[in-house]
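User: Can you help me understand a structure? I only have the sequence.
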Amino acid sequence: MLMRTCVPHYLHPEMGIEALKRNIHALVEKPAGVYTKQVKQLNEFAATKPELTFGIMFNQRTNPLYQKIKEIIDNGEIGNIRRTNWIITTWWRPQGYYDQSEWRATWGGEGGGVLVNQAPHQLDLLQWICGMPKKVYSNVKYGYQRNIAVEDEVTVLLDYGNGATGVFITCTHDVMGTDRFEILGDKGKIVVDDSKRVTIKRLHQPESEMSATMSMQDVMKIFMGQGQSEIYTEEVLEFGSAWGSQHIAVMENFAANIVEGTPLLAPGSDGIHGVTLANAIHLSSWLGKVVEIPLDEQLFITELNKKIEEEKKYPVQG
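Assistant: Let's start by predicting it. Here is the structure, written out as tokens:
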């Protein structure tokens, strides 16, 4: 038997544990939970049941585009990452979306807004491809353009701890939307547009070597667009829309793991990474300072409970 959890986020860890207790394979929806402490409990219990399959619905990991990017990064084709930038504002939601359910877009019912509902896809892909940052500093707007208590606008600065930095931006009020993901390495650059088109530029020599050997005359040629082929090669890959097939691919992979032992594309234990990022982003906003990862789990829960109690006293009027 298997169980897939499609319930409010707070219940994902609890139902996952209950399924595993009954020796039922568990496929947990994203996010794995609202806060890391409960997700750790799920992961720890799942580790006691190695004979069962435990997965998470990170369906975008099945997208050939993102699999290709991960392969390029893992192979070192663009060298060490220096910067990541992702603007993902294609999650437009009208007010009616939030008004359709009492639990939605509340601290007590959903545990947050865009960071726990829509953006978990990109938070997972970001860390899956580029690794986890060590610090975050965020500017988050709550009920900015929608009549909700939780966040609908997020801007985050990422610090990977090795000199590399990043920016992550998401919201639910941009009806035109942008999806652009850039990864700069010391040996090249990847640019993803609309999750359909990938441009890969590979330098013939690392940027540091270019800096040490090139003259200002060489620089002027670059600025004027001359001799670019002498500096890098460019590859453009087009991918069709992956919508409609991704969830099926996760479930097929999940079943193949049960039947044949095929490795999981999205092990359930990986769910904690995106939750960690979301928690750190929220906590940074609430405290108004940089938050280090791993974060203070109990402090996050304390601050979250304050939001829940405030929400009870002063509920948003629909």
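Now, to help you interpret it: Residues 61-238 form a domain with the Dihydrodipicolinate Reductase; domain 2 fold (CATH 3.30.360.10). The radius of gyration is 21 Å. Let me know which part you'd like to focus on.
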